[in-house]
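TICKET: design request
STATUS: open
ATTACHED STRUCTURE:
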């Protein structure tokens, strides 16, 4: 379940993904399979080759892409989330959430 974002943020992310941009969206997230993680960053792009190449530079495997809907994306959490957001100069996405979000 996703929460903690504004509708405008979600709409902007979806538009960017549809336009073939690499788009980032971080939100609160609860999933019992990932104990200790309270946020997820979705990195999406409708250009699957571009998304795959982007992911490879961070050691993400193509089979990890979520292709179940119209917004293909990688889900980043934990250490990968912090490391990649830092390298992408997007760490501010985590700063709007509580300090123990990694």
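STATUS: resolved
RESOLUTION: sequence designed for all positions
ATTACHED SEQUENCE:
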């Amino acid at each position: 379940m996703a929460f903690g974002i504004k509708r405008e943020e979600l709409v902007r992310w979806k538009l960017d993904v549809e336009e073939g941009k690499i788009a980032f969206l971080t939100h609160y997230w609860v999933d019992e399979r990932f104990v200790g993680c309270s946020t997820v960053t979705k990195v999406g792009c409708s250009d699957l080759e571009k998304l795959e190449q982007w992911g490879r530079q961070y050691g993400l495997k193509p089979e990890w892409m979520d292709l179940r809907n119209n917004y293909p994306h990688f889900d980043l959490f934990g250490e990968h989330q912090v490391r990649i957001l830092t390298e992408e100069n997007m760490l501010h996405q985590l700063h709007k959430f509580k300090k123990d979000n990694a």
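CLOSING REMARK: Strands lie at 2-3, 23-29, 39-44, 73-76. The longest strand covers residues 23-29.
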